[in-house]
Amino acid sequence: MAGNAGTGKGRVLVAGFATRHVATSAHNAGYEVHCVDSFCDLDLAAVTESCTRFSELSELQGTVEDVCRRMHFDIVAATSCAESLDLSRVGQKICGSDPKVAAYFLDKKNIQDFFEKNGIPCPKILSEGVYPAMIKPCNGAGGWRNTKAETAEDEAQWCKLWENEPYIRQEIVEGVPCSVSCISDGKKAVAVSFNEQLLRGGSGERAYGFSGAITPLKHPLESEIVRCAERAVSLSGCVGSVGVDFMAADDRFWAIEINPRFQATLDVVERSCGINLFQAHVDASRGILPHAYTGEYRQYTARKVIFADRDMTVKDDLSKCGDVAADIADIPAVGTTIEEGGAVLSVYGHGESRDEALESLDKTIRKVNRYLCRW
User: Which fold has domain 300-372?
Assistant: First the structure.
């Protein structure tokens, strides 16, 4: 356990599907941290006083309420899948966006309407029967299940796989997947970083899934995209850490989504910018915002999620392996079984340029693979 209780800064509960990145930020900011999480990985346990695990998303609300009944929290923070929880029955309130506001931006149809209403450039909705089309479920995070349908048969196959799932059909736009991380007080938003996003690639419902990030991203339209993100978040009414995803071509860009929560890019942003995003999130809820965006960074940082190429069982405690421990996260416990295609862990690289960061990342991956090949 973390052993940081009694620091005087307050007791925090971080709840959601995956909480390691936010819990670590809160721990580094000096809080006593507890979490409700779907994994409870080794490095999460290292920064928390308690970790309560849930298996199905339907259990999340009840699990969080049970934990809140057992102890009082000064701050409750939400990650993915917990943004819209109503904790009024246990006398708690999520620090950040109002759950009703967050719920609105968890629906991609609502996001599309919001962008169009406010004149924010975004991919157009296609009429039925027009192809190719990007098929996106209205609910869901991380790009999982997004599919490029070239024909009516492709769309029908997706609908069969995800029966009765509401979705939107967008035009296909090409460019660099990217995002802007913002901090908002609900009325004004300030960007803190411009990030490149890495997608899984391949085919099927996993192709457009998030698989990592590189911060910073240098792009000819950086200043315009950053201003667009700040405007979108300011208009959204979201509070705290809020992200906007984009697709950026050389001469134009499109807003893709607003994420009313801490983003998966949090740790690369912190390492590159030298900012503590949890504290910035809490400060924003109290009306305190960071300084204006400067586009300056301490270093380039890259993160990549390693996915299992086969069913495997974890055989090593990588948190105790000195050759890799400093450059990995989301570390599974020995005996954990991981299905083919499932996330194994995160790896990092850093340097004074994008190329150096990716070279560093590749070195970390090679070291990690010496262990994974035995699993």
Answer: Aldehyde Oxidoreductase; domain 3 (3.90.1170)
